[in-house]
Amino acid sequence: MMHRLTDVLVVDRNTADLLVQALDALEALAGRRNQRLAPDIIRVRMELNRFRSTSVDESTGVSDAIDEILSSTSGGWDTRTAARELGISESAVRQLIRKGRLDGYRHGGRWIVSARSVAEYVNERKDRESAGPQRDR
For the domain bounded by 74-137, which CATH number is listed? Predict the structure, then answer.
């Protein structure tokens, strides 16, 4: 099921899963032909992946989920800007993208990193650091 709000497309989790599978198949086909998906298509897949893994419970409510979608930034940074923001090297940023810790896509031979995923990574890192070392019990 799909619903359109002004400049926003809302899909249920099953539809998001199907769209991601279709985009993955399209990327595989493009790869076999030595071609790449357009950056906008890669961005759509990144957004679908992120939102299909977002959970909504009764306490959050649909309006909060829609607010989250609407407040999402689709902006991206190059690896140099992301590295500066994270205080790490550009190669470390690329490694985090490959590991799936940051959302990113290739455009014109360069990596573009989701500004939102950088912010989320910074927050996760702060949470880990404030929790201190974990001990086995």
Answer: 1.10.1660.10
